[in-house]
């Protein structure tokens, strides 16, 4: 796979992981991180398929990212990670019915232009 292909795949998997974590979090009643509640909370996380799959996506994305870093300059590759904001914003609108406001559109446009400028 080409470097750009690895970068895109890593970013897509990371964004997918984020969306799955949100879906899993929506199905939880709450998360108690106190000393007495941490083990039951971890157990409820481990029983939530979307969270498990989301974590797998993050893990695989990280492995691909390490592969990217072995072949690419960090100053070239890292700005592309910001495309995950674009993917997550669109996915949040589709799957969670979150609004895409004018501010979000301007922000996404700024991200895309910024990555383009940085990688010219």
Overview of the structural elements:
With 120 residues, the protein is mainly α. It has one domain. The protein is built from six helices and no strands. The protein is globular.
Label this structure with key terms.
single chain; 120 residues; mainly alpha; 0% strand
List the helices and strands and how they pair.
Blueprint: H1 3-27, H2 38-46, H3 49-71, H4 74-77, H5 83-96, H6 102-118
Helix pairs in contact: 1-3, 1-5, 5-6
Range of helix content? over 70%
Into how many domains do the coordinates divide?
1
Mean pLDDT: 91
- Major beta sheet summary: none
What is the number of strand segments? 0
pLDDT below 50 for ≥5 consecutive residues: which ranges? none
Q: Quickly give the structural class.
A: mainly alpha
Q: Helix segment count?
A: 6
> Could you tell me the radius of gyration in angstroms?
17 Å
Series of secondary-structure elements, N-terminal to C-terminal:
HHHHHH
Strand content: under 5%
* Shape category: globular
């Amino acid at each position: 796979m080409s470097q750009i292909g690895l970068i895109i795949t890593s970013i897509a998997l990371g964004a997918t992981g984020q969306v799955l974590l949100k879906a899993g979090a929506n199905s939880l009643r709450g998360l108690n991180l106190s000393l007495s509640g941490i083990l039951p909370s971890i157990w409820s996380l481990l029983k939530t398929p979307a969270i498990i799959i989301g974590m797998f996506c993050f893990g695989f994305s990280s492995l691909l990212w390490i592969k990217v870093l072995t072949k690419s300059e960090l100053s070239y590759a890292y700005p592309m990670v910001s495309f995950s904001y674009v993917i997550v914003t669109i996915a949040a609108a589709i799957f969670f019915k979150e609004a895409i406001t004018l501010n979000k559109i301007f922000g996404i446009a700024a991200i895309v232009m910024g990555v383009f400028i940085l990688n010219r």
